[in-house]
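Lecture notes, part 5. Sequence design as translation. It can be helpful to think of inverse folding as translation between two languages: the language of shapes and the language of residues. The source text, in C-alpha coordinates, appears below.
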Protein backbone atom coordinates (compact mmCIF):
# COMPACT_ATOMS: atom_id res chain seq x y z
CA UNK A 1 0.00 0.00 0.00
CA UNK A 2 1.70 3.16 -1.23
CA UNK A 3 -0.46 5.98 0.13
CA UNK A 4 -0.10 5.33 3.84
CA UNK A 5 -1.60 7.76 6.33
CA UNK A 6 0.85 6.72 9.06
CA UNK A 7 4.13 8.64 9.04
CA UNK A 8 7.29 7.87 10.98
CA UNK A 9 9.93 10.48 11.65
CA UNK A 10 13.51 9.54 10.74
CA UNK A 11 15.71 8.38 13.60
CA UNK A 12 18.56 10.65 14.80
CA UNK A 13 21.78 9.87 12.99
CA UNK A 14 24.18 10.14 15.90
CA UNK A 15 26.15 6.99 15.16
CA UNK A 16 26.29 4.62 12.23
CA UNK A 17 23.96 1.68 12.68
CA UNK A 18 24.16 -1.66 10.95
CA UNK A 19 22.25 -1.88 7.71
CA UNK A 20 20.25 -4.92 8.75
CA UNK A 21 18.81 -3.11 11.80
CA UNK A 22 17.90 -0.13 9.62
CA UNK A 23 16.22 -2.45 7.14
CA UNK A 24 14.24 -4.18 9.87
CA UNK A 25 13.16 -0.86 11.35
CA UNK A 26 11.96 0.45 8.00
CA UNK A 27 10.19 -2.83 7.28
CA UNK A 28 8.43 -2.89 10.63
CA UNK A 29 7.44 0.76 10.26
CA UNK A 30 6.00 0.20 6.79
CA UNK A 31 4.15 -2.91 7.93
CA UNK A 32 2.55 -1.00 10.80
CA UNK A 33 1.64 1.85 8.46
CA UNK A 34 -0.02 -0.50 6.00
CA UNK A 35 -1.94 -2.30 8.71
CA UNK A 36 -3.27 0.93 10.26
CA UNK A 37 -4.18 2.25 6.81
CA UNK A 38 -6.14 -0.95 6.17
CA UNK A 39 -8.01 -0.45 9.46
CA UNK A 40 -8.83 3.13 8.52
CA UNK A 41 -10.02 2.15 5.04
CA UNK A 42 -12.27 -0.53 6.54
CA UNK A 43 -13.87 2.06 8.82
CA UNK A 44 -14.40 4.56 5.98
CA UNK A 45 -15.84 1.87 3.74
CA UNK A 46 -18.18 0.70 6.49
CA UNK A 47 -19.63 4.21 6.76
CA UNK A 48 -19.42 5.05 3.04
CA UNK A 49 -23.21 5.14 2.67
CA UNK A 50 -23.60 7.60 5.54
CA UNK A 51 -24.29 10.98 3.94
CA UNK A 52 -25.16 14.49 5.08
CA UNK A 53 -28.37 16.13 3.80
CA UNK A 54 -26.29 18.01 1.20
CA UNK A 55 -24.81 14.76 -0.14
CA UNK A 56 -21.33 15.03 1.39
CA UNK A 57 -19.67 12.10 3.15
CA UNK A 58 -20.47 12.08 6.87
CA UNK A 59 -17.24 10.32 7.92
CA UNK A 60 -14.00 11.65 6.44
CA UNK A 61 -10.28 11.79 7.24
CA UNK A 62 -9.28 14.55 9.62
CA UNK A 63 -5.53 14.78 10.11
CA UNK A 64 -3.58 12.94 12.79
CA UNK A 65 -3.35 12.44 16.51
CA UNK A 66 -0.30 13.96 18.26
CA UNK A 67 2.95 12.16 17.57
CA UNK A 68 4.00 9.49 20.03
CA UNK A 69 6.84 7.02 20.36
CA UNK A 70 6.52 3.25 20.26
CA UNK A 71 9.53 1.59 21.85
CA UNK A 72 10.47 -1.56 19.95
CA UNK A 73 13.25 -4.09 20.09
CA UNK A 74 14.83 -2.46 17.03
CA UNK A 75 14.62 1.13 18.22
CA UNK A 76 12.11 3.91 18.90
CA UNK A 77 9.62 4.77 16.18
CA UNK A 78 7.79 8.10 16.12
CA UNK A 79 4.30 7.57 14.73
CA UNK A 80 1.24 9.61 13.84
CA UNK A 81 -2.08 7.77 13.88
CA UNK A 82 -4.79 9.18 11.58
CA UNK A 83 -8.13 10.53 12.77
CA UNK A 84 -11.56 10.75 11.19
CA UNK A 85 -14.20 13.44 11.46
CA UNK A 86 -17.85 12.53 11.96
CA UNK A 87 -19.79 15.41 10.44
CA UNK A 88 -23.09 13.84 11.49
CA UNK A 89 -22.16 14.04 15.19
CA UNK A 90 -22.99 10.36 15.69
CA UNK A 91 -19.89 9.70 17.75
CA UNK A 92 -17.96 7.75 15.11
CA UNK A 93 -14.19 7.81 15.61
CA UNK A 94 -11.17 5.80 14.49
CA UNK A 95 -9.43 3.64 17.10
CA UNK A 96 -6.59 1.54 15.74
CA UNK A 97 -6.67 -1.92 17.26
CA UNK A 98 -3.00 -2.33 16.33
CA UNK A 99 -1.93 0.90 18.04
CA UNK A 100 -4.36 1.53 20.91
CA UNK A 101 -3.78 4.77 22.87
CA UNK A 102 -2.40 3.00 25.94
CA UNK A 103 0.25 0.98 24.03
CA UNK A 104 3.53 2.86 24.42
CA UNK A 105 6.19 0.18 24.22
CA UNK A 106 6.03 -3.03 22.26
CA UNK A 107 8.60 -4.63 24.56
CA UNK A 108 6.18 -4.54 27.51
CA UNK A 109 5.10 -8.16 27.75
CA UNK A 110 2.62 -7.26 30.49
CA UNK A 111 0.67 -5.21 27.92
CA UNK A 112 1.36 -7.07 24.70
CA UNK A 113 0.44 -10.62 25.62
CA UNK A 114 -3.13 -9.89 26.85
CA UNK A 115 -3.58 -7.57 23.87
CA UNK A 116 -2.47 -10.19 21.33
CA UNK A 117 -4.48 -12.92 23.04
CA UNK A 118 -7.71 -10.96 22.80
CA UNK A 119 -6.87 -10.28 19.14
CA UNK A 120 -7.02 -14.03 18.54
CA UNK A 121 -3.29 -14.90 18.42
CA UNK A 122 -2.89 -18.49 19.58
CA UNK A 123 -0.35 -19.47 22.20
CA UNK A 124 1.93 -21.19 19.70
CA UNK A 125 2.10 -18.13 17.43
CA UNK A 126 3.32 -15.59 20.01
CA UNK A 127 7.02 -16.02 19.25
CA UNK A 128 6.55 -15.38 15.54
CA UNK A 129 4.12 -12.51 16.12
CA UNK A 130 6.47 -10.72 18.51
CA UNK A 131 9.78 -11.58 16.90
CA UNK A 132 9.97 -8.53 14.63
CA UNK A 133 9.27 -6.15 17.52
CA UNK A 134 11.03 -7.77 20.45
CA UNK A 135 14.06 -9.18 18.69
CA UNK A 136 16.12 -11.39 21.00
CA UNK A 137 13.53 -11.05 23.77
CA UNK A 138 11.04 -13.08 21.74
CA UNK A 139 13.15 -16.26 21.83
CA UNK A 140 12.00 -17.11 25.33
CA UNK A 141 8.32 -16.86 24.45
CA UNK A 142 7.64 -20.52 23.87
CA UNK A 143 4.12 -21.91 24.02
CA UNK A 144 4.83 -23.33 27.47
CA UNK A 145 6.14 -19.97 28.70
CA UNK A 146 3.03 -18.18 27.46
CA UNK A 147 0.77 -20.79 29.06
CA UNK A 148 2.55 -20.39 32.39
CA UNK A 149 2.20 -16.60 32.18
CA UNK A 150 -1.53 -16.85 31.47
CA UNK A 151 -1.94 -19.25 34.37
CA UNK A 152 -0.07 -16.81 36.62
CA UNK A 153 -2.30 -13.94 35.54
CA UNK A 154 -5.39 -16.02 36.21
CA UNK A 155 -4.12 -16.76 39.73
CA UNK A 156 -3.31 -13.06 40.16
CA UNK A 157 -6.89 -12.10 39.23
CA UNK A 158 -8.40 -14.65 41.59
CA UNK A 159 -6.21 -13.40 44.44
CA UNK A 160 -7.14 -9.78 43.64
CA UNK A 161 -10.84 -10.74 43.63
CA UNK A 162 -10.52 -11.95 47.23
CA UNK A 163 -8.62 -8.92 48.58
CA UNK A 164 -9.71 -7.25 51.83
CA UNK A 165 -11.79 -4.09 51.27
CA UNK A 166 -12.48 -3.16 54.90
CA UNK A 167 -10.24 -0.08 54.70
CA UNK A 168 -11.67 1.12 51.40
CA UNK A 169 -14.27 3.87 50.93
CA UNK A 170 -15.68 4.67 47.51
CA UNK A 171 -17.74 7.79 46.88
CA UNK A 172 -18.87 7.05 43.33
CA UNK A 173 -19.27 3.87 41.30
CA UNK A 174 -19.38 3.49 37.53
CA UNK A 175 -20.72 0.11 36.44
CA UNK A 176 -21.14 -1.61 33.10
CA UNK A 177 -21.50 -5.02 31.52
CA UNK A 178 -19.40 -5.90 28.45
CA UNK A 179 -20.27 -8.92 26.32
CA UNK A 180 -17.72 -11.14 24.59
CA UNK A 181 -17.91 -14.28 22.49
CA UNK A 182 -15.60 -17.10 23.52
CA UNK A 183 -14.55 -20.18 21.59
CA UNK A 184 -16.30 -22.49 24.01
CA UNK A 185 -19.63 -21.43 22.52
CA UNK A 186 -21.21 -19.42 25.32
CA UNK A 187 -21.33 -15.68 25.73
CA UNK A 188 -19.20 -14.10 28.43
CA UNK A 189 -20.47 -11.00 30.20
CA UNK A 190 -17.77 -8.99 31.94
CA UNK A 191 -19.22 -7.14 34.94
CA UNK A 192 -16.97 -4.20 35.74
CA UNK A 193 -17.06 -1.57 38.49
CA UNK A 194 -14.73 1.42 38.74
CA UNK A 195 -14.83 3.50 41.92
CA UNK A 196 -13.40 6.79 43.09
CA UNK A 197 -11.97 7.05 46.59
CA UNK A 198 -12.61 9.99 48.91
CA UNK A 199 -9.19 11.28 47.83
CA UNK A 200 -10.24 11.39 44.18
CA UNK A 201 -8.31 8.39 42.88
CA UNK A 202 -10.08 6.08 40.42
CA UNK A 203 -9.64 2.38 41.08
CA UNK A 204 -10.75 -0.86 39.52
CA UNK A 205 -13.15 -2.31 42.10
CA UNK A 206 -14.44 -5.44 40.40
CA UNK A 207 -14.12 -7.33 37.13
CA UNK A 208 -16.04 -10.60 37.16
CA UNK A 209 -17.89 -12.77 34.69
CA UNK A 210 -21.53 -13.76 34.44
CA UNK A 211 -23.66 -15.60 31.93
CA UNK A 212 -25.64 -12.41 31.40
CA UNK A 213 -26.03 -8.94 32.88
CA UNK A 214 -28.71 -10.19 35.28
CA UNK A 215 -29.77 -9.22 38.77
CA UNK A 216 -28.37 -12.45 40.19
CA UNK A 217 -24.98 -11.92 38.52
CA UNK A 218 -24.70 -8.32 39.75
CA UNK A 219 -25.92 -9.32 43.22
CA UNK A 220 -23.13 -11.88 43.44
CA UNK A 221 -20.57 -9.21 42.53
CA UNK A 222 -21.91 -6.58 44.94
CA UNK A 223 -22.43 -9.01 47.81
CA UNK A 224 -18.86 -10.18 47.29
CA UNK A 225 -17.72 -6.61 47.93
CA UNK A 226 -19.74 -6.46 51.14
CA UNK A 227 -18.45 -9.81 52.38
CA UNK A 228 -14.87 -8.60 51.87
CA UNK A 229 -15.44 -5.52 54.01
CA UNK A 230 -16.99 -2.83 51.79
CA UNK A 231 -19.95 -2.32 54.13
CA UNK A 232 -20.59 1.30 53.11
CA UNK A 233 -21.82 1.68 49.58
CA UNK A 234 -21.04 4.60 47.28
CA UNK A 235 -23.04 7.81 47.54
CA UNK A 236 -23.83 7.65 43.83
CA UNK A 237 -23.67 4.91 41.19
CA UNK A 238 -23.65 5.62 37.47
CA UNK A 239 -24.73 3.08 34.87
CA UNK A 240 -26.93 2.39 31.87
CA UNK A 241 -30.55 1.28 31.99
CA UNK A 242 -29.87 -2.43 32.60
CA UNK A 243 -32.30 -3.35 35.35
CA UNK A 244 -30.14 -6.14 36.73
CA UNK A 245 -27.54 -3.80 38.19
CA UNK A 246 -30.04 -1.36 39.72
CA UNK A 247 -32.11 -4.10 41.32
CA UNK A 248 -28.98 -5.70 42.78
CA UNK A 249 -27.71 -2.31 43.99
CA UNK A 250 -31.02 -1.68 45.76
CA UNK A 251 -30.58 -4.92 47.70
CA UNK A 252 -26.88 -4.59 48.55
CA UNK A 253 -26.49 -0.82 48.97
CA UNK A 254 -30.01 0.60 49.35
CA UNK A 255 -28.85 4.12 50.29
CA UNK A 256 -26.89 4.66 47.07
CA UNK A 257 -28.37 7.25 44.68
CA UNK A 258 -28.98 6.08 41.11
CA UNK A 259 -27.70 8.11 38.14
CA UNK A 260 -28.52 6.98 34.60
CA UNK A 261 -25.83 7.54 31.99
CA UNK A 262 -26.72 10.32 29.55
CA UNK A 263 -24.64 8.81 26.75
CA UNK A 264 -26.55 5.53 26.92
CA UNK A 265 -29.88 7.30 27.27
CA UNK A 266 -29.21 9.56 24.30
CA UNK A 267 -28.33 6.54 22.16
CA UNK A 268 -31.49 4.70 23.26
CA UNK A 269 -33.71 7.68 22.48
CA UNK A 270 -32.11 8.33 19.09
CA UNK A 271 -32.47 4.66 18.17
CA UNK A 272 -36.25 5.12 18.35
CA UNK A 273 -36.23 8.25 16.16
CA UNK A 274 -35.81 8.72 12.40
CA UNK A 275 -32.27 9.76 11.45
CA UNK A 276 -33.57 13.00 10.03
CA UNK A 277 -34.67 14.03 13.53
CA UNK A 278 -31.41 13.10 15.29
CA UNK A 279 -29.68 16.51 15.13
CA UNK A 280 -32.68 18.35 16.59
CA UNK A 281 -33.28 15.68 19.24
CA UNK A 282 -29.62 15.66 20.29
CA UNK A 283 -29.64 19.42 20.71
CA UNK A 284 -32.81 19.21 22.81
CA UNK A 285 -31.35 16.46 25.01
CA UNK A 286 -28.16 18.47 25.37
CA UNK A 287 -30.17 21.38 26.76
CA UNK A 288 -31.44 19.13 29.56
CA UNK A 289 -28.20 17.78 30.99
CA UNK A 290 -26.29 21.01 30.39
CA UNK A 291 -28.84 23.12 32.29
CA UNK A 292 -27.33 25.00 35.24
CA UNK A 293 -30.11 24.02 37.67
CA UNK A 294 -32.50 21.14 38.15
CA UNK A 295 -35.43 23.51 37.56
CA UNK A 296 -34.04 24.57 34.19
CA UNK A 297 -33.39 20.91 33.35
CA UNK A 298 -37.03 20.05 34.08
CA UNK A 299 -38.15 22.93 31.87
CA UNK A 300 -35.97 21.62 29.03
CA UNK A 301 -37.27 18.11 29.74
CA UNK A 302 -40.87 19.25 29.39
CA UNK A 303 -39.99 21.16 26.25
CA UNK A 304 -38.61 18.12 24.43
CA UNK A 305 -41.67 16.06 25.42
CA UNK A 306 -44.05 18.67 24.03
CA UNK A 307 -41.99 18.90 20.88
CA UNK A 308 -41.63 15.20 20.03
CA UNK A 309 -44.08 13.10 22.07
CA UNK A 310 -47.03 13.30 19.69
CA UNK A 311 -45.05 11.97 16.72
CA UNK A 312 -42.56 9.75 18.52
CA UNK A 313 -44.19 8.41 21.71
CA UNK A 314 -41.89 5.37 22.02
CA UNK A 315 -38.76 7.50 22.01
CA UNK A 316 -40.15 9.90 24.56
CA UNK A 317 -41.29 7.05 26.79
CA UNK A 318 -37.69 5.83 26.91
CA UNK A 319 -36.72 9.29 28.13
CA UNK A 320 -39.57 9.84 30.60
CA UNK A 321 -39.22 6.58 32.51
CA UNK A 322 -35.82 7.55 33.97
CA UNK A 323 -36.47 11.26 34.47
CA UNK A 324 -35.45 11.51 38.13
CA UNK A 325 -32.48 9.16 37.76
CA UNK A 326 -31.18 11.20 34.83
CA UNK A 327 -31.14 14.36 36.95
CA UNK A 328 -29.71 12.92 40.17
CA UNK A 329 -26.33 14.57 39.56
CA UNK A 330 -27.77 17.99 40.51
CA UNK A 331 -27.55 16.93 44.18
CA UNK A 332 -23.76 16.59 43.95
CA UNK A 333 -20.92 19.13 43.50
CA UNK A 334 -20.97 20.88 40.13
CA UNK A 335 -17.24 20.18 39.79
CA UNK A 336 -18.09 16.46 39.61
CA UNK A 337 -20.88 16.69 37.04
CA UNK A 338 -18.56 16.09 34.10
CA UNK A 339 -17.63 12.75 35.70
CA UNK A 340 -20.97 11.53 37.03
CA UNK A 341 -23.42 12.37 34.25
CA UNK A 342 -22.12 9.45 32.17
CA UNK A 343 -20.20 6.21 32.46
CA UNK A 344 -17.39 7.74 30.38
CA UNK A 345 -14.68 6.79 32.92
CA UNK A 346 -15.48 3.13 32.31
CA UNK A 347 -16.48 3.49 28.64
CA UNK A 348 -13.22 5.14 27.65
CA UNK A 349 -11.25 2.48 29.51
CA UNK A 350 -13.20 -0.29 27.85
CA UNK A 351 -12.94 1.12 24.32
CA UNK A 352 -9.77 -0.85 23.65
CA UNK A 353 -11.16 -3.98 25.30
CA UNK A 354 -14.37 -3.75 23.28
CA UNK A 355 -12.42 -3.65 20.02
CA UNK A 356 -10.89 -7.01 20.85
CA UNK A 357 -13.64 -8.90 22.61
CA UNK A 358 -16.45 -8.01 20.19
CA UNK A 359 -15.01 -10.11 17.38
CA UNK A 360 -16.86 -13.40 17.07
CA UNK A 361 -15.20 -16.22 18.98
CA UNK A 362 -11.81 -14.59 19.14
CA UNK A 363 -11.16 -15.49 22.76
CA UNK A 364 -10.44 -18.80 24.41
CA UNK A 365 -11.74 -20.00 27.74
CA UNK A 366 -13.80 -17.81 30.04
CA UNK A 367 -11.10 -17.89 32.71
CA UNK A 368 -8.30 -16.86 30.36
CA UNK A 369 -10.34 -14.10 28.73
CA UNK A 370 -11.23 -12.71 32.16
CA UNK A 371 -7.57 -12.76 33.21
CA UNK A 372 -6.49 -10.98 30.02
CA UNK A 373 -9.11 -8.25 30.43
CA UNK A 374 -8.06 -7.82 34.05
CA UNK A 375 -4.46 -7.31 32.95
CA UNK A 376 -5.46 -4.74 30.31
CA UNK A 377 -7.56 -2.82 32.83
CA UNK A 378 -4.74 -2.98 35.35
CA UNK A 379 -2.44 -1.37 32.80
CA UNK A 380 -5.01 1.31 32.00
CA UNK A 381 -5.55 2.06 35.70
CA UNK A 382 -1.99 3.34 36.03
CA UNK A 383 -2.88 6.22 33.70
CA UNK A 384 -6.24 7.25 35.19
CA UNK A 385 -6.38 10.87 36.23
CA UNK A 386 -7.56 12.15 39.58
CA UNK A 387 -11.16 13.35 39.80
CA UNK A 388 -11.67 17.07 39.27
CA UNK A 389 -12.71 18.88 42.46
CA UNK A 390 -11.56 15.91 44.56
CA UNK A 391 -11.40 18.07 47.72
CA UNK A 392 -15.21 18.18 47.72
CA UNK A 393 -15.46 14.40 48.02
CA UNK A 394 -14.92 14.68 51.78
CA UNK A 395 -18.11 16.76 52.00
CA UNK A 396 -20.03 14.21 49.95
CA UNK A 397 -18.83 11.36 52.16
CA UNK A 398 -19.95 13.27 55.25
CA UNK A 399 -23.46 13.73 53.84
CA UNK A 400 -23.17 17.48 53.25
CA UNK A 401 -26.10 18.43 51.05
CA UNK A 402 -25.74 20.02 47.64
CA UNK A 403 -28.41 21.66 45.51
CA UNK A 404 -27.84 22.47 41.85
CA UNK A 405 -24.17 21.69 42.39
CA UNK A 406 -23.63 24.14 45.27
CA UNK A 407 -23.27 23.32 48.96
CA UNK A 408 -26.43 23.94 50.97
CA UNK A 409 -25.68 26.10 54.00
CA UNK A 410 -27.89 25.72 57.06
CA UNK A 411 -29.14 28.69 59.08
CA UNK A 412 -26.17 28.69 61.49
CA UNK A 413 -23.76 28.81 58.56
CA UNK A 414 -25.60 31.76 57.02
CA UNK A 415 -25.57 33.67 60.30
CA UNK A 416 -21.88 33.04 60.75
CA UNK A 417 -21.27 34.27 57.23
Amino acid sequence: MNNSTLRALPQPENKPTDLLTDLLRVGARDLIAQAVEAELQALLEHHRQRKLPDGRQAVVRNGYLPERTIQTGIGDVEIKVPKVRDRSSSGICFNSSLLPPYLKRSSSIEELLPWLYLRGISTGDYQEALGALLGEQAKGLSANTISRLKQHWGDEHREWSLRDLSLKRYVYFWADGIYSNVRMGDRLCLLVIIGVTEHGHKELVAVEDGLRESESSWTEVLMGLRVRGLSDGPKLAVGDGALGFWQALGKCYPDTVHQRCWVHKTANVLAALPKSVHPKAKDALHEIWMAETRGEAHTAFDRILVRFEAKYPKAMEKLKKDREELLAFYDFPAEHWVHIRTTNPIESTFSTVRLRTKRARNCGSRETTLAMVYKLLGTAQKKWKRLKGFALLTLVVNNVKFKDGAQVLDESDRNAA
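The translated text above is only one of many valid answers, since several sequences can fold into similar shapes. The chain is about 45% helix and 15% strand.
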